[in-house]
């Protein structure tokens, strides 16, 4: 076991958004590393209690990051490490509900930082979004030093805001914050829905025998990162001193073609319905995404290890193993998403 893993033994750890895909996998990892207590703090607005690991050192507290009374309760135990993963996710959701996005991603993040500062928390790891904050004009591969004001959704703006507040609290109060920039995550734990990521939504539709909606020309790519690789990066970010005050990409460092992804998911699930061309979203201005992970390698010793095909098979199996819960809780209400309307039509 590496030093960064042994570090969590006996610690009290708070994970906001701990019932989500990344949060639930991180919770399990830290609990199995013999943490004293892992507090999962989540309002279950986009996650489910059945997804939280049932382990003796895991405590679930239901609450929002905008609820100061609930925040006082979880910070009263003085967590030594805070992973701030809670967010109003993601781009289309923020376009539809910009005020909620600002409240949760903006005010909620500010409150988490304030309580962490008052409680003298030893480390905060903030989940930012590399898919968002670089804008559409950044050269590939995306590197941390590039800054853009050409952001096209409220989610992109508020994720950048969280980083700017992190800089303030680190500079003004000395609050030890690490900024991790996630790209397109995938893996077990993510329930599909109108505002969720493309891979769980593709798998869900494929298992139902529906065509997979595609909104591009066929040349689009994304940098998909398996959730357990992200968990490893987060564990490292909570330990290494040289990461404090820094921002770093957490990605795979490889491009995956979205059209080929859809075709492969249909192949792996036996779906004969094919692919459905749908309207593009006005905010989706990025044709390609590819991250440079050199800084995370240097500061954290991070190395993405999961082969994409292996991770995809693992995710499909998780869907099959949890299909009853997923089928019940997948959320596709009427709204602006043409993909969602396709599921409702079924």
Condensed summary:
The chain is of the alpha/beta class and 346 residues long. It is built from 14 helices and 13 strands. Helix 2 packs across helix 9 and helix 8 runs parallel beside helix 10.
Description:
There is one protein chain. The protein has 346 residues and is of the alpha/beta class. It has 2 domains: 3-185 and 225-250, Rossmann fold (3-Layer(aba) Sandwich), CATH 3.40.50; 189-223 and 255-283 and 308-345, UDP-galactose 4-epimerase, domain 1 (Alpha-Beta Complex). 42% of the residues lie in helices and 15% in strands. It is built from 14 helices and 13 strands. It has helices spanning 3-6, 21-32, 68-75, 91-96, 98-118, 130-133, 154-173, 198-208, 227-237, 258-269, 294-300, 308-321, 323-329, 338-345, and strands at 12-16, 37-42, 58-62, 81-84, 123-129, 177-182, 184-186, 212-214, 221-222, 224-226, 247-250, 256-257, 275-277. A 7-stranded parallel beta sheet has the order 3-2-1-4-5-6-11, sandwiched between helices. A two-stranded parallel ribbon has the order 7-10. Helix 2 links the parallel strand 1 (12-16) and strand 2. Helix 2 (21-32) crosses helix 9, helix 5 runs parallel beside helix 7 (154-173) and helix 8 packs parallel to helix 10. The protein is globular, with a radius of gyration of 19 Å. The N and C termini lie far apart (48 Å). Mean pLDDT is 93; it is low at 336-346.
SSE layout:
Elements: H1 3-6, E1 12-16, H2 21-32, E2 37-42, E3 58-62, H3 68-75, E4 81-84, H4 91-96, H5 98-118, E5 123-129, H6 130-133, H7 154-173, E6 177-182, E7 184-186, H8 198-208, E8 212-214, E9 221-222, E10 224-226, H9 227-237, E11 247-250, E12 256-257, H10 258-269, E13 275-277, H11 294-300, H12 308-321, H13 323-329, H14 338-345
Helix pairs in contact: 2-9, 3-5, 5-7, 8-10
């Amino acid at each position: 076991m590496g030093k960064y893993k042994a570090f969590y033994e006996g610690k009290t750890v708070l994970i906001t958004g701990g019932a989500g895909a990344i949060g639930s996998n991180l919770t399990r990892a830290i609990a199995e590393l013999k943490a004293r207590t892992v507090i999962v703090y989540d309002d279950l607005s986009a996650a489910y209690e059945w997804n939280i690991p049932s382990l003796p050192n895991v405590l679930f507290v239901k609450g929002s990051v905008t609820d100061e009374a609930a925040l006082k309760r979880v910070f009263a135990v003085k967590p030594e490490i805070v992973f701030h993963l809670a967010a109003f996710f993601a781009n289309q959701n923020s376009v539809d509900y910009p005020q909620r996005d600002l409240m949760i991603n903006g005010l909620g993040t500010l409150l988490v930082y304030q309580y962490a500062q008052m409680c003298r928390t030893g480390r905060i790891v903030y989940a930012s979004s590399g898919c968002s904050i670089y804008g559409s004009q950044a050269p590939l591969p995306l590197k941390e030093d590039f800054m853009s004001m050409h952001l096209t959704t409220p989610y992109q703006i508020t994720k950048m805001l969280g980083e700017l507040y992190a800089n303030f609290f680190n500079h003004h109060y000395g609050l030890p914050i690490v900024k991790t920039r996630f790209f397109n995550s995938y893996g077990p734990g993510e329930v599909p829905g109108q505002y969720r990521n493309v891979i769980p939504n593709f798998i869900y539709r494929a298992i139902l025998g529906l065509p997979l909606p595609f909104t591009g020309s066929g040349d689009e790519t994304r940098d998909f990162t398996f959730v357990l690789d992200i968990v490893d990066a987060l564990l490292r970010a909570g330990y290494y001193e040289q990461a404090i005050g820094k921002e770093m990409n957490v990605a795979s460092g490889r491009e995956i073609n979205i059209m080929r992804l859809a075709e492969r998911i249909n192949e792996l699930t036996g779906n004969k319905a094919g692919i459905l061309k749908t309207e593009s979203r006005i905010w989706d201005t990025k044709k390609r995404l590819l991250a440079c992970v050199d800084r995370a390698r240097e500061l954290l010793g991070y190395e993405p290890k999961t082969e994409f095909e292996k991770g995809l098979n693992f995710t499909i199996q998780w869907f099959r193993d949890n299909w009853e819960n997923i089928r019940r809780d997948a959320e596709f209400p009427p709204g602006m998403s043409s993909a969602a309307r396709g599921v409702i039509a079924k």
